[in-house]
Amino acid sequence: MDRGGCQMNGGGGSERSGPDRHGMITLEDLESFSEDQLSDSGNGSLEEEGENMEDDEDQDRLLHYWQDVARGHQVEVAQDMAEPIQLLTSNNQGRSQRQHIPFTLLGRKEKCGELLYEKRQYEKGHWACITMHEDTYEQSICYGFMRIMRYICQQNSIGDYLGMTLPIVTVVRTDETRTQMSHDVTVAYFLPDYHQAQPPQPTDNEIVIEIWPATTVYTRPFTGPTNEVTILDQITTMAELLDSPGVCINNSFIVAGYTNPAHSHRQNEIWFLERP
User: Given this model, what pLDDT does residue 141 score?
Assistant: First the structure.
């Protein structure tokens, strides 16, 4: 099976097999959840959401929380997702501290006090990633994230929770004019520092561990939902702001998510990748 690569350079990916189509919901599918329903989720950050839920929500209630949201998107969340959901949305006895992916800030451009973009250097590291080929961006993210989520929580060679890192990134690909998005979407998870030397292997044979090379990225923050329309809009805006857009890859981009997508002011970034 041609799995291809899913590095920051936007390589290809793997084919998805049939049995895993069901029981998958991504963070993206929480988007339409109302502010009242999210009253237990603090300010919507991934770090705070689990801490606020831990004391008064057990696995079943967390599962039902996700299932209720999923029904509005015609997505079924299987019972076996209860433990992964609990692990990723609770403090997990101190084991769920979120590690932010380290980078070196190389520069930033501002105008009238507003940040237009930052230039960062991300070092070489191991990432777990899976490339999906669904009919829509949202479907690909849904199926891909749930499989990565299972890997993080237990479906790995050490059979244990690996720890969460932020952001979770998706590699999106467009045509040369950046007006149409490919259905191939890569979901990727940076391995925590203590697993970088010997990454646990996934039991899902379509999740691959890649060594992504050191990469310079130009990144711009934005708030709100992510879908094909908003992503293409952000790509267009970033291209107009860059002083030298030609130094970047022009048909592969990264969307980085830091915040619970249900929150009305969720935090995202669009990343342009500098050519090697």
Answer: 79
- Contact by Cβ (8 Å): 138, 225: no
Q: Cis ω on the peptide bond leading into residue 192 (within 30° of 0)? A: no
Instruction: Provide the whole-model pTM.
Output: 0.77
Q: Cα(276)–Cα(257) distance, rounded to whole angstroms?
A: 24
3 state SS of 71 = helix
In the chain, pLDDT over 90 holds for what percent of residues? 48
Q: Give me the DSSP letters along 199-230.
A: PPPBSSTT-EEEEEPPEEEEEEEEES---HHH
Enter the tokens of residue 234.
Answer: 């952000």
pLDDT at 68: 76
Torsion of CA 276, 230, 64, 76, to 10 degrees: -80
Give Cα separations from 190 to 150, 178, 207 (angstroms).
15, 27, 13
Strands 104-111 and 165-166, by their bridges, are unpaired
